[in-house]
Amino acid sequence: MRPEYVTNQDLNNEIAVAKFLESKWGCEARKMPNKFSRFDYALLRSGQLTCMAEIKCRTCPVGYYDDYMISYDKWSYGVHGYEVMHLTHIIVVAWSDAVGWVYCANQNASKCRLGGRTDRGDESDVEVVVDIPIKNFSIL
């Protein structure tokens, strides 16, 4: 069984971003159960599900890298979710100096590669990833 690496601080950072989205977009961000959902939050307006959001928090500034790397599995779930359910799926990234978001359905998967983390010694951290250009993100 694979270990979980999410810390309480990670969850607190995610909650802070969700609250920011609520105030910025006038929505309710409802946390999804970690074990049962590929995306972190459901975003609702007037009680109606409008969007699924994957929230990521990074310690570097927004321009530190040219691309944002995300698991192909997460990205393809977001694309597929839009195609099948006609439900918007977005990736929200909080960098040290900005918060940005991007639609999954509008991203091109031509920048797929093998990548991931190698600092934890967990071979499951290396997988097929999608690189999304930072310029594609809308900064809030």
Task: Give an account of the 3D structure.
- Helix content is about 25%, strand content about 35%.
- The chain is an alpha+beta fold and about 140 residues long.
- The chain has a single domain (about 10-140), classed as Trna Endonuclease, Chain: A, domain 1 (3-Layer(aba) Sandwich), CATH 3.40.1350.
- It has a six-stranded mixed sheet. A three-stranded antiparallel sheet has the order 4-8-7.
- It is globular.
Write the layout of secondary structure elements.
Layout: H1 8-25, E1 28-31, E2 41-45, E3 48-57, E4 67-71, H2 72-85, E5 88-94, E6 99-103, E7 112-116, E8 126-133, E9 138-139
Please estimate the helix content. Answer: 10-25%
- CATH hierarchy, class: Alpha Beta
Tally of individual domains: 1
State the CATH architecture: 3-Layer(aba) Sandwich
Q: Give the overall pLDDT as a whole number.
A: 88
Oligomer: single chain
Order of helices and strands: HEEEEHEEEEE
Distance between the termini: 38 Å
Side by side, the strands of the main sheet go: 1-2-3-5-6-9
Query: Regions with pLDDT < 50 over 5+ consecutive residues?
Result: none
Strands, total number: 9
Strand-residue proportion: 35-45%
Named CATH topology: Trna Endonuclease, Chain: A, domain 1
**What is the number of helical segments per DSSP (H or I, 4+ residues)?**
2
Kindly provide the radius of gyration, computed on alpha-carbon positions and rounded to a whole number of angstroms.
15 Å
Described by the principal axes of the CA atoms, the overall outline is globular
Biggest sheet descriptor: 6 strands, mixed
Derived structural class: alpha+beta
